Amino acid sequence: MRFRYDMKKLPTGSWCVYDIITGAIAKHNGKEVIGLNIVETDNMVDHLNMIYQNDFSRTLH
């Protein structure tokens, strides 16, 4: 599986999902994925990486 997104803890103690290619905070449905707890963030990382993998696979076929 190809990964594009990961998570990091912010100085405030909350978490965000970021794009490992650009370093920018990831967006989902037009909103930054920031201020979540660790479980929500981990789930969102998995979700966004699955979307990225599916989109990447479609471009190969």
Overview of the molecule:
With 61 residues, the chain is an alpha+beta fold. It has one domain. Helix content is 38%, strand content 28%. The chain is built from 1 helix and 5 strands; from the N terminus they run E-E-E-E-E-H. Strands 1-2-5 form a 3-stranded antiparallel β-sheet, covered by helices on one side. A two-stranded antiparallel sheet has the order 3-4. It is globular and about 40 Å long. The chain starts with a strand and ends with a helix.
The poorly predicted ranges are: none
- What is the percent of helical residues? 25-40%
Shape: globular
Using only C-alpha atoms, the radius of gyration works out to: 12 Å
Strand content: 25-35%
Number of helices: 1
Summed up, the domain count is 1
Largest sheet: 3 strands, antiparallel
Would you report the number of β strands? 5
Output the strand order for the largest sheet. 1-2-5
Distance between the termini: 16 Å
Structural class: alpha+beta
Average pLDDT figure: 91
Order of helices and strands: EEEEEH
What's this entry about, in short?
38% of the residues lie in helices and 28% in strands.
List the helices and strands and how they pair.
Elements: E1 5-9, E2 15-19, E3 27-28, E4 31-32, E5 34-36, H1 38-60
Antiparallel strand pairs: 1-2, 2-5, 3-4
Could you name the key traits of this structure?
single chain, 61 residues, alpha+beta, three-stranded antiparallel sheet, two-stranded antiparallel ribbon, 1 helix, 28% strand, globular
